[in-house]
Design a protein that fits this description.
It is a single chain. It contains ten helices and three strands, in the order βββαααααααααα. With about 220 residues, the protein is mostly helical. The chain has a domain of about 120 residues. It has a three-stranded antiparallel beta sheet with strand order 1-2-3, with helices on one face. Strand 1 and strand 2 form a beta hairpin. The protein is elongated, with a radius of gyration of 20 Å. The N terminus is likely disordered.
Length: about 220
């Protein structure tokens, strides 16, 4: 079974300290424990969670004022912890990628093809419904942020690898010339972009979008 192991770039904050949970790690790897730094770490956490909650609620361009108000801090405090909004977005997306991990695990795969299709489509539907608001923001900002671009590349690679594992028996039965093309088609059918096309562009319900993707995948593997 494929195990998720995401190697993500480190996001550094103002003052050359790295936030891990609510701890602050200095450049020598030591945990900073004085009260002021702990309060600062909690404040940073509040800012990150404020941004994520605003995005999940549908605000794809939260301003520094929006974030500060939700976090219960001043706008000045936001920029005391982060150089700019891009560095804040990068840390927020890193948290979102980590949040994806339990949503991706499939457990033991069933033998029957129909059951594997149903399992993967159902799990992807739940994943995409959960991450779409944040994913839209990450896709839009990745061109100006190498960290975001790296996070998205890791995510796409892992999802593609999972598809190839789930349907390995069918892919292995193909001629070598067809295997790569079929794998790419399955990856596209089960991608976040396909989900967005069905849910947002075509206005399908989640149930209808899932049924459509099941049909496409089953047809590809017929």
């Amino acid at each position: 079974m494929l195990t998720l192991c995401l190697q993500l770039p480190t996001v550094r904050c103002v003052g050359e300290a790295t936030v891990t949970g609510i701890e602050v790690i200095d450049e020598d790897g030591e945990v900073v424990t004085d009260g002021r730094r702990r309060r600062g770490a909690r404040s940073r956490e509040a800012v990150v969670e404020a941004m994520l909650s605003l995005i999940r609620e549908g605000n794809r361009r939260p301003s520094s004022a929006d974030i500060a108000e939700r976090a219960g801090v001043s706008v000045r405090s936001v920029f005391r912890h982060f150089d700019d909004l891009d560095s804040l977005y990068a840390l927020a997306i890193e948290r979102q990628v980590a949040h994806m991990a339990p949503l991706l695990e499939l457990g033991e795969l069933p033998d029957a093809l129909d059951a594997r299709i149903d399992l993967l489509v159902t799990r992807r539907a739940g994943l995409y419904e959960d991450i779409s608001p944040v994913r839209h923001v990450a896709e839009r900002r990745q061109a100006s942020s190498p960290v975001l671009s790296d996070h998205l590349a890791v995510s796409r690679s892992w999802l593609r690898t999972q598809v190839l594992e789930v349907f390995a028996p069918e892919l292995d039965a193909c001629a070598a010339a067809d295997r790569k093309e079929l794998g790419e088609a399955l990856d596209a059918a089960l991608s976040w972009r396909m989900w967005v096309a069905l849910r947002e562009d075509q206005g399908c319900s989640a149930a209808r979008a899932s049924a459509t993707i099941r049909r496409v995948v089953a047809s590809l593997l017929a």
